[in-house]
Amino acid sequence: MPSISARIPDDDEEALEEVAALLDEDKSSVIRKALREGLSDLRIRVAVERYQTGEISTNEAARVAGVSVAEWLEIARERNLTSQLSPDDLAADADRAREL
């Protein structure tokens, strides 16, 4: 596993120590979990922003977010995002579903 180092403010170190104590884990484990969850949240945020502007499609948004299309549609529903699916996209999806 690669190693990285980073400088963090004193307040963040105190918060890290508190969370590590709450989880009864070492600081390195907490940092890995926080990084993983934070990266996931950031990917979703970028996908939401780009999807809302029409810059990316549903499939692209799912890829950017790092989730399946079904998971992306659930995220979009939870956030009340307007669909970027065109009637042609819906027809193509329906055709593919019938082939299954």
Give an account of the 3D structure:
There is one protein chain. It contains five helices and no strands. The protein is mostly helical and 100 residues long. Helix 3 crosses helix 4 (69-78).
Chain-averaged pLDDT: 90
Largest sheet: none
Q: Gyration radius, to the nearest Å? A: 19 Å
Number of strands: 0
Broad structural category? mainly alpha
| Distinct helical segment count | 5
SSE string: HHHHH
From the N-terminal CA to the C-terminal CA, the straight-line distance is 40 Å
Uncertain stretches of 5 or more adjacent residues: none
How much of the polypeptide forms β-strand, as a percent range?
A: under 5%
General shape: elongated
Percent helix range: over 70%
Kindly list the characteristics that best describe this protein:
5 helices; single chain; mainly alpha
Task: Provide a short characterization of the protein structure.
This protein is 71% helix and 0% strand. By secondary structure, it is an all-alpha fold.
Furnish the topology, listing elements before pairings.
Blueprint: H1 10-23, H2 27-52, H3 58-65, H4 69-78, H5 87-99
